[in-house]
Amino acid sequence: MSAFMQAITDGILGGSVYALMAAGLTLIFGVMDIINIAQGILVVLAAYLSYALSVHLHLDPLLGLAITVPMMFALGTFIQWAFIGRLRGRERTAMSLLASYGVAILIEGILYQIFSGTPVSLQPYAWYSTATIHVFGFYLADIYLIGFGLAAVALAAIYLMLYRTKFGRSIRAIVQDRTAARLIGIDVNRVAALTFGIGVAVTALGGAVFGLTNTFNPDSGYDLISRLLSIIIVGGMGSIGGAAAAALFMVTSEELVNLWRPQWATAVYYVAIVIVLVVRPRGAFGRREARAQ
Amino acid sequence: MTGDATLAPLSVWTIAGRIGWPASNLLLVAALVAFPLVFTNPAVTTDAIDILIFVAMAAAWNTFSGYTGYISLGHMVFFGCGAYFTAIATLDWGLTGSGVFWLLPLAGLLGGVIAIPFGLVALRVRRHTFVVITIAVVFIFQQMAYNFGVTHGSSGINTPVFNFDPATYNNPFYYVGLVIAVATVAASWVIRRSRYGLQLRAIRDDEDRARGLGVQAMRVKIGALAFSAIPLGAVGGLYWLTTYTIQPPYAFNPLWDLTIALMAFLGGLGTVWGPVLGAVLVEGAQLYFFPQTGGSYLYYLVYGGLFLFVILGMPRGLIPTAAELIEKVQARLSREPPLAAAVSDGEIDAEIAGGTPAAVRAGESA
Amino acid sequence: MTPRSARFLSVGVTAAILTATLAACSSSSSTAGGTTKSPIVIGASLSTTGSFSADGQAFKRGYQLWAHDQNKKGGLLGHKIVLKFLNDNSDPNTAVSNYQTLITVDHVNLTIGPFSSLLTAPSVTVTHRYGYALVEGAGGSPLVFSTKLNNVFDVSLPVAKSLQPLLSYLTSLPAGQRPKTAAYPTVNDLFTTFQTAYAQQVLSAAGIRTVYPAARLFQPEVAQYKGIADQVARTKADVVVLGSLDVPTVQAFTQAFVQQHYSPKVFVATAGPDQGAAYVKAVGGGNTDGVLVPNTSYLGAPDPVRNAMQAEYVGLYGGNTSSINADVYEAYSVGQVLTQAIEAAHSTSNAKIIAYLHSGATMTSVQGPVKFDAVGENILATPAVYQWQKGKYVFVLPSGVSGSVPIVYPKPAWGK
């Protein structure tokens, strides 16, 4: 029984970290019909940024977020302006997959060049990375609780932005009908660029938590993106709440399968995608099938 | 069915094209057959085999994704199954000589068979969802390869020692690869010109409308998928034979799907020769530059840059873009507007910025 | 009709490029001479990028260090050693192609091994075809020897029974001190599974109860590690035999164990703690204390060559002897064995080298004595177990052998 509870706890806490990383991805897709494959390597880049700040300026990784979040926002806006925004045509979504893959390779090469392949971690730079609180006989790692908290805050912030600000309304208008939004005077390109920037800025948070809970090197992006992609598809692309729910659900299921046959846990993950997509292609909470091609 | 050029006045190009076209093809094939006899260095032959494998994969992939517009990142499923089938059968049946090559068509057929349930599941959804499902299936197969006993899990399967003459060891594999590549490109060309190919393109341009016109979309799509899977199964087996080992992450490597897609896009998605050119360029460059990079990661920057350049700058690919250029030069030289032949049903692609109907045709029929 | 021009274009361009590319490939050769005093070129495919990049780079340093040292002594039979490396990106297909290129295009005199059994196994096949010897130090799994080809020589320990000294030690403890339970979390990989399965077999036969079986493999993906580690921590096993490939796995398990306030009496990992500085930095110095890892040993009197090599490495790259990655020793040993074979055979011909290495002769290396059996395994490679003790990486088992230090058992609590 307690192995079961342990699995559930790990699933929820671990899932929240993925929710954090996935939130930006789903926002980008929802607004722009762009599948940003570079999201995985961007998380790794953000982790490396936190790492560099910790090593050279001795900044705590969480405090360093004050620097890394704006940096990632700027980077996101740049990527959108330089690459993604230049995609045209009907095949934009499929093309965005390929274009963002190109961006991902570039970033990976730059990371390898600067940091080499040696795995590093933020763990030694944060005194709380192994601290826990003791609750109901379980040790809950502080760092995962912080991740959970950050995820909740970030998702709430995004939600508030979407539903309580004018900017957010423009975003929602674009999601509903891009052409109509343009017709009523929304500067679609500018909003899209900013949204991409926000989506990438959120990865700064995810990256810090990822770096605190894992050892990583430039190669780590691939495992991440396959999971993130799965999460946003299952949750429904464009739905923030869906991404959060899917992240929690899928990581928890994986932990439960770990109790039985860990070597199948990853397979179950992908089978879940196939089942969900076939039964309900828009995902659990997706509003509707994204624009048909 | 299409308003073809039968009504256009015969130009030098047409005559040259009618005679020269099959002749140049034959010349090319003859040159490729003679290739290992002229360039005898086995390292060159090995590289050539790698290129042929990618030519077959890109051309086959294009026969499905290029013609139907459904970008698949799941073709490695067929490749990996073909590779493992060949490996398991070779060891089970104790093959050590040229008998092993008869396994490759079987491996291809296996790929085709697997494509059917794959298609039945995956092709029911719209395109962006389809992409993600295909990626997921590759991972599922990879996990199965890790965990099923028959594939020997993470250890993989080594080749036995084959009894081919060491002096010309790579040549039999080269010729087999050549046969597969030529057959794939030829089949791609045949399909393109056929009514079936037209149905595929109708689906690409507007699936609902195609259905309305009577195209059995699901059947057509699955057929194309199964057909494109066959060369992949076969070259999967050839890959095992020339790499001497196979393991799950290499049999079912999702990154190769992206590479094949890049090759097709680079050369010209939906054209017959585009993927061939793309495969030659990308794999050739990779084989030449990559080992020289040593500790530098310049390779990543070049590769990523290439990807971006192709997707953003030349989304139609090299061949259609080059054809358009030639077209423009010709038009300027002859000072008359390009021949305005009819454009076939459903081929109007309004998204080509500034394209002329001739450019559309050039893109479609190259 | 203009589309035809596109076709001519495509066919012509394709043919031209195909020819040009391959002609270019074939022209990039640097012939190495066979006449006296011209350099000896030794070729290897190394993983400087890709999943083995950390090990590949360490291996490269080992090879370079050896070549540098041997050149100071006059090279090989008077010929200066020149190393030629090609990057295989941790991909077996590329490794095969690289050796093919090194042999038939660059005409290297000799070849030495890549990193990992995964890449070594196919490389053996291709080097065998040209009659080249392949002395290597990182391909010790049965996958490599199952080819049964005569040109492969692994100077390092065959991996299957690498944990033997630790297993012997644990089963020989008196009943009061002996651990009661053991967990064997193992990554699904050809390097790890044999080792932990063997460990489980031995320990359970001695009455140490298995509470987390070796067969319950998990995938080498970071997302998996914490969940598995927490489950292992929950078992409160006395012994944890972690089948790991690299530092990230060990770090994840260490972090999870610390968080769960779980400190096993014995914590041994099949790889990771042997990576020197990379391991210490990732895990945090205080957490390394008492952690064990198997490795090839050097038994016997202190080896001046080994000490000199260590000093030189530290001089070049910083750190101390404990921060040297095990891969460096493996690579250096490859060079040493090759040197001894060449000097004994008075020839750099591959056939003579292969014959000598199969003759049953005993050679020395910084990893200990080397002697090959018929399939190329080093039958004198004695498994040894190392331990981190207060920041120093020391050899502890088998005990009582010159150079060994008493093992610290049970493992001290996690420190910080």
Concise account of the structure shown:
The complex is a heterotrimer of chains A (293), B (366) and C (416). Chain A has 293 residues and is mainly α.
Task: Please specify the SSE layout and strand pairing.
The complex is a heterotrimer of chains A (293), B (366) and C (416).
Chain A: H1 2-32, H2 39-57, H3 65-82, H4 92-115, E1 120-121, E2 132-135, E3 138-141, H5 142-164, H6 166-176, H7 178-183, H8 188-213, E4 215-216, H9 221-235, H10 240-260, H11 262-279
Antiparallel strand pairs in A: 1-4, 2-3
Helix pairs in contact in A: 1-5, 1-8, 1-9, 1-10, 2-4, 2-8, 2-9, 3-8, 5-6, 5-8, 6-8, 9-10, 9-11, 10-11
Chain B: H1 12-38, H2 42-68, H3 76-92, H4 103-122, H5 127-147, E1 157-158, H6 171-193, H7 195-205, H8 207-212, H9 217-243, E2 245-246, H10 248-251, H11 254-267, H12 274-289, H13 298-313, H14 318-334, H15 357-365
Antiparallel strand pairs in B: 1-2
Helix pairs in contact in B: 1-6, 2-6, 2-9, 2-11, 2-12, 3-4, 3-9, 4-9, 6-7, 6-9, 7-9, 11-12, 14-15
Chain C: H1 2-27, E1 40-46, H2 53-72, E2 81-87, H3 92-104, E3 110-112, H4 117-129, E4 134-136, H5 142-145, E5 152-154, H6 164-172, E6 181-183, H7 193-205, E7 209-212, H8 222-235, E8 239-242, H9 247-259, E9 266-269, H10 277-283, E10 292-296, H11 304-317, H12 326-345, H13 350-357, E11 383-389, E12 392-397
Parallel strand pairs in C: 1-2, 1-3, 3-4, 4-5, 6-7, 6-8, 8-9
Antiparallel strand pairs in C: 10-11, 11-12
